[in-house]
From TrEMBL:
Residues 4-510 form the D-Lysine 5,6-aminomutase alpha subunit domain. One of its GO terms (molecular function) is cobalamin binding. InterPro entries: Cbl-dep_enz_cat, Lys-AminoMut_A, Lys-AminoMut_asu_sf. Pfam families: Lys-AminoMut_A (PF09043). It comes from Effusibacillus lacus. SUPFAM superfamilies: Cobalamin (vitamin B12)-dependent enzymes. Keywords: Dioxygenase, Oxidoreductase. This is Dioxygenase. Signal peptide: none annotated.
Amino acid sequence: MNKLNLDPEQVGRARSLAARIAGCVTDFIGTKTTVAVERTVLRLFGLDGVDEDGIPLPNIVVDRVKEHSRLAEGVTKPFVNAMLQTGRTVQETGEAVAKGDLRLFDLPWLPEQNIREKGAELARAALERIRRNRERRNELIGKYGERPQPFLYVIVATGNIYEDVVQARAAARQGADIIAVIRSTGQSLLDYVPYGPTTEGFGGTFATQANFQIMRQALDDIGEELGRYIRLCNYCSGLCMPEIAAMGALERLDVMLNDALYGILFRDINMQRTLVDQNFSRMINAYAGVIINTGEDNYLTTADAVQAAHTVLASQLINEQLALRSGLKEEQMGLGHAFEMNPELEDGFLLELAQAQLAREVFPKAPLKYMPPTKHMTGNIFRGHVQDALFNMVGIMTGQGIQLLGMMSEAIHTPLIHERHLAIEAARYIFRNARHLHDEIEFKPDGIIARRARQVLADATGLLREIESIGLFESLEQGKFADVKRTVAGGKGLTGVVDRSERYYNPVEQLLREELGLGRGASV
């Protein structure tokens, strides 16, 4: 596909620049671990629950190791050594540490080979459970068949998981393909994962493993009733990015928001912490068969969509290359962009079409995540419905993969059930009536759309060249993306970053690397 007359060599140059940028990041993060990575290992081993004060047991164990300045070697060795020395299970060991009945570094050490054998056994059991979930997803999709893209993606955000279930069932009956459970405001800044079913979220519902399990079962039940597979989406971003990825893999989530830069730019999470965490979280998502969604659409809520369009493409290319280095396939990359041109702009629809078609041609295998207008929604529900209709038209004309449906009441309130029904109805009407339009149309070789796309590609290539020369960290400090500036040593979570020692051991990462064909890396 090359309807825009893009120069293949220029696309290749842009991708090569992004690859070199990602390679430098990979070299850096390969020498570090984080408290979230180590907590994830324990969760995958099977450690769960909280102490009497509500503190998650994985947090307590990792904190104990960190207090002894031994986290550089990873949490696995002291934890598994304690299991073997005491004969306790994973859960019993974690509970004993939390109660103070077991001091990890007061125990004698078994031969390292014994510890590694047990660590590998626990890692294999975790990945086996994830593999079964992946196979179950494929089995259900094979049973019901797949609906054509773009998938209709809608959100529920009541704050109460049981109310979310009611909303999700209604949305599925109305025609939704993907249900995204919005997280409670501010959860990305919590350096722990809340425990159990929750009913008190604000602006969304807390992402917990119990909530994942409740919603997964509800969607499986309604999917059986409707005769189709309903995908579940949540957010593995923030300070607990890899932990939530692991919980999603264990409970068979299908789609996860998992961007390399979003937390840095929009939540002021330290860039070192984010880049280390995203790598491990994406390895888990890759193995679980999860589609990740990236957040470039957010750039256009703070920067002008006309002037900053090239930053979206540049970031998509960097996200793609970082994802490849984590084992994700192109078919699992829901790279994000958005319909955010000012509606008062003459030929704005053509510019939107150019951007969407450009993304489609540069990333032909990716199930692109296309976001609806938000920045220029005014509360006029009639104009808003028209804006959403134009957005849906661009989506079907350019073959997007995941269409997050716009709501006419954007900028007024959280959508009501009938508003979501109208959004789904309108999208299905447009997609049905224009199903093969993208196969029928071509663009004028030197027209507005083609020229705009080529200019955005050229500008993105220039930006990538600049980033490659100074490095991604310095580029973030200079505010190259979304007009937001961050510092290498600033933001939240830096104290949770630890340099790996030569004795670092992470059997989950080691096994994931083997399964995903990533080679050995610094952890092994």
